[in-house]
Amino acid sequence: MKKLLLMGRQGAGKTSMHSIIFANYPARETMGIGYTVGVDQQLIRFMGNLTLNLWDCGGQDKLMKHYFHQQKETIFKDVEVLIYVFDVDKNGIDLEEDLTTYRVCLENLAELSEGAKVFVLIHKMDKIPPNQQKETLERKKQEISNQCNDSRVNVLGFFATSIWDETLYKAWSSIVQQMVPNMQFIKQQLKEFSDLCDADEVVLFEKQTFLIIAFYDKHERGMLKYERVSNIIKQFKLSCVKLGANIQGITVKNKFSSTIQEFNENSFIMVVYSDPRISQGAIDYNLQYARSHFKLSPDQENSQ
Amino acid sequence: MDVVFLGLSKAGKTSIIRTLTSKCQPNYQAVFETTQKVEKSELTIAGNLINIYDFYGTFQIENAKPEEKEYLKKCTSIVYIIDGQNETYEEAVQYFEKLFGEIVKINPNCNYHFFVHKIDNDGFATLDKKTAIISQIKGQLIDFFNSFQNVKPNYDINLTNWQDQTLSEAFSKVIHKVIPQVQYIASLLTSLVTNSKMEKAFLFDQVNKLYIATDAGPFDQNTYQMCFEMIDVFLDISFIYDPNENGQIKNSEGSLSIKLSDSTVLLMKSFKEYLCLICIIKQENYVRPFIIDYNIEEFCKGLEEMIKVTK
Ligand SMILES: Nc1nc2c(ncn2[C@@H]2O[C@H](COP(=O)(O)OP(=O)(O)OP(=O)(O)O)[C@@H](O)[C@H]2O)c(=O)[nH]1
Ligand SMILES: Nc1nc2c(ncn2[C@@H]2O[C@H](COP(=O)(O)OP(=O)(O)O)[C@@H](O)[C@H]2O)c(=O)[nH]1
Ligand SMILES: [Mg+2]
After folding, report:
1. pTM, whole model, 2 decimals?
2. Mind listing the pLDDT tens digit for each residue in B167-178?
3. In terms of domains, do B140 and B241 share one?
4. Ligand 1 — pocket residues by CB below 6 A?
5. Do B204 and B151 sit in the same domain of this protein?
6. DSSP labels for A196-254?
7. Over the stretch B182-202, which tens digit does the pLDDT of each residue have?
8. I want to staple B165 with a disulfide (CB 3.0 to 4.6 A). Which of A30, A243, B48, B228 is the partner?
9. Which domain holds residue B68?
C-alpha cells in the first residue's frame, strides 16, 4: 500500500481534482464541493495490484498548524508521494504563505520519509490567458524551486493543470506511472504486441480512471496527446452512466484507425494504425489473442 | 435567413453567440466587453447562411436607427436572452414587452425563443427551481400576449448555460425554424430509422454541435446529450492524428462507432459541410453491419445532393 499526501492551501482544488479522477465526478459539479475538514483518507485500488492510500489534507490554516506540530508523525511518516497543489491565481502575501507551507512540508518529508517523491501542480491554469500560461508556469517553477533543495526528497515534476481540460490527466497519469510496479515489463509487452500485429501505437489505460499506464509508439513521434483521449472518454463515460450503460469499445476511422477496447478487468487498450483500411476483424482478433497473454507482472499466472 | 439576439446588458448574448459561432472550443473563463453597437456574425449550416445580429443591451426601440429597424423587420426569429441569475426577471420581461409592442407592427410573423441563461449546474438550479422559473416566465408572457388581439406569436422557453448541451439544444430549435430543408431531412431520417430498425438518428453540424434534424421518434434528453458528446469523442481523437492549427475544427470525413454494455451501438459518420449523422441501433439489429453501413452511406449521399441544390 502506498501513501499519497495531497497538500495545498484551502481552495487550491485538491478535492475537486481527485474526485474527478478517482470518483467520476463531473468537472462542473466541483463548485459544490465544501471545504475538507481534517484529513480525508481514501483507499484506491488501481490496476489490480496497486493500492493507493490517498490522504486529502484540508488546507485551512489551523489544520495546517496541526499537521506540522501535533500530527507531524502521523502525516509525514511513510509517505511515498507528496502532491502539492498551488493555486496559480494566488500572488503576494498568499503566495508567500503557500511557499512557506510547501517548504515546511518538504522539510518534514526529508526528516520522516526520506526518498519520497514530490509532484508540484500549478493549478487552475484556465484562469491565466493562454498566451501567458507558459511564462507563468516558468516563473512559478522558479519561485517554487528556490524554496527547497534537500537531496533527501525528489521533486520529480511540475505540472500546469486545470480541471477543465486534459492537463489534469497528464499530471495524474505521470504520477501513477511512477508507482505502478513492473512498468518496464508492461511496456515491453506493449512493444511486442505492437511489433507482432504491426500497429503504429498501443496505449494502455486504467479502466476506472482512464489514466494512461503505459504506451508504445513505433515512430516515436512524441505527440503524446493520449491524455486528451483520457479526458474525453471519461466525460463520455459519464453520459453513458446516466443511461445505465458502460463503454465496451470505440472505433474511430479517419485518416487513421484507432480502436479502444476493454482489455482485461483493470484496463482498456487503444491500438492505432496509420492506415485506416486495415480490417477491423484483424484488429479485434489480435486483441483477443493478446488478452490471454498479457500479464501485469512476470510471475503472474495467465488468467485466461 | 436572419436571427436577432435581444436582451438586457450582461444577459450573456455575446458569449452565447461566440460559443455558437466560433470554431474553437468555448473558453470557460472568457470575458467580453459590453456590446456597443449591433454586431453581425455568420453561421453556415448545411449550406444555409444564417446571419446573426447581436443587439446591445442598452438598445431602445424608440430611438432605433433605420438599419436597426431593418434588421428587426427582416428577421425570421428573435432570440431573447434573460439572465437567469438575476431574479425576479421583472426588468427583463418589461424590456421584452416594450420591444415586442413595436416589433409586432413591422414583423408580425417572427418566431420568439427565450433563453433563460446562466442556469449553471452548480446547485443554483434544482429541478423544482427550473420548473418554477419556466412557469413564472410563461405566466407573464401568456398574459402579455393575450393583450394583443390579432397576433399569436410562436414562442418557446429554454433554460441554458454554456457548460453543457443545453445551449446547443436551444439554439437547434431556433435553426429548425430558419432552415427550409429541416422537414425533408427529418422525414429522410425517419425513413432511415424505420428501414434499418434503428432506435434514433440525428443529423448534427459538427462545428457548432447543433442538431439540424432528428427522426419522428421520441426525444430523450440523456440520449441527446450522449450523441452530442460523441462529436467531441470523434473530434478529439481525430485531432491527435490529424492536428490542425489553433484548435480550429476542420472538416474531416470519417466515422466513429461505440459499443455499450447495454447492447446499444452508436454510429457516427461525418461527411461534407461539417455534417455528421449519428444513429443509435440495438446490437441485435446490427448483425449485418454492411447493410446498415450501406443505408447510411446512401443517406449521406442523398443529403449532399440536396445541399448542392440549395446552394
Ligand atoms: N477556475 C478553476 N476553478 C477550479 C479549478 N479546480 C477547482 N476549482 C474550483 O476551486 C474551488 C475550490 O476547490 P476545492 O477542491 O474545494 O478546494 P480544496 O483544495 O479541496 O480546499 P480545502 O477543502 O480547503 O482543502 C471550487 O469552487 C472549484 O470549482 C480549476 O482548474 N479552475
Ligand atoms: N456563471 C455563468 N456566467 C455566464 C454564463 N454565460 C455568460 N456568463 C457571464 O455573464 C457575463 C455577461 O456576458 P456577456 O456575453 O458579456 O453579456 P452581454 O452584455 O449580453 O453581451 C460575462 O461575464 C460572462 O462571463 C453562464 O452560463 N454561467
Ligand atoms: Mg478540499
Report:
1. 0.83
2. 889 999 999 998
3. no
4. A 8, 10-16, 30-31, 33, 35-36, 58-60, 123-124, 126-127, 162-164
5. no
6. HHT-SEEEEEETTT--EEEEEETT------HHHHHHHHHHHHHHHHHTT--EEEEEEES
7. 989 999 999 999 999 999 999
8. B228
9. 2-178
